Amino acid sequence: MTGIYDDPWAYELACSFRDVAAEVDELTAWYGRHAGAPAGTVLELAAGPAEHAREFARRGSRATALDLNPTMCAYAAERAEQAGVALDVVQADMTDFALGRRFDLVITMLDSTSHLMTLDAFVAHLDRAAGHVAGGGLYVVEMSHPKDRLTDEPSVGTAWTVDRDGVHAAVRWGEPDDRLDPVTQIADDRVTMTITGNGAEPRVIRDVVPYRFWSATEVEAAVRLSGAFEIVARYGDFGDVALTDPAAWRMITLLRPRRTA
């Protein structure tokens, strides 16, 4: 049996509630604010279907997508070809990669850092990312908001539906009794996705996805331990929403390479 990450089309469908174009608008605005120029080169890490990298490529940036899963990499390349955009796709681990070049903007979207299970892995990831950010560049990390795991009033639900191209999907990412281990801060999220429509038989995908929760202070600690970045801004959404705002539903950290004397 294959899981949700081995079915890139289904995974992309499950995440199609996202407004990728609007998010890229905001990523572009943040880069312009902190770097003062357009991002000519972009690297998306743990990219999956590489929707953000493809959108940057569509807008004229030289974009690269990196992911560990070979099926995801093949799908990202195929989707870019179908869209008529140039996208460089690399299969590699987000904690151990060396592309031999630097990028104006590096991004990791949709809480992909939850796949980093230890502090050592997070620091290794930051070290590798820093080695690929150009001077004056920016690294943007999008994570889930801490209140999703630490309070009884999460900012997002674990169940949703999407409709696209005549296909309907009901997604449940995590069950109420999927508990976070208080020592490891890892939860095994049970995923169920039911796909119907287009005259086909209903299809059900079931998976268990380990999720490592990272708090805001832990992210700060990882940045300090790496020493390669400094935090320049934090937001609670794709917009100027403070992380502490009641409307915040993401934890987005903007990092730039630390200046050396």
Question: What attributes does this structure have?
Answer:
Rossmann fold; 4-stranded antiparallel beta sheet
Which superfamily, in CATH terms, is the homologous superfamily of the largest domain? Vaccinia Virus protein VP39
Q: What is the string of helix and strand elements?
A: HHEHEHEEHEHEEEEHEE
Query: How many strands?
Result: 11
Largest sheet: 7 strands, mixed
Tell me the strand order in the biggest sheet.
3-2-1-4-5-11-10
Q: Please give the count of helices.
A: 7
Radius of gyration over C-alpha positions, nearest whole angstrom: 18 Å
Any idea what the shape is?
Answer: globular
Structural class: alpha/beta
State the domain count.
2
Give the CATH architecture of the largest domain: 3-Layer(aba) Sandwich
Percent helix, as a range, is 25-40%
**Strand coverage percent:** 25-35%
Return the average pLDDT rounded to an integer: 94
- Tell me the CATH topology of the largest domain: Rossmann fold
Distance between the termini: 53 Å
- Give the C-level CATH assignment of the largest domain: Alpha Beta
Low-confidence segments, given as residue ranges, are none
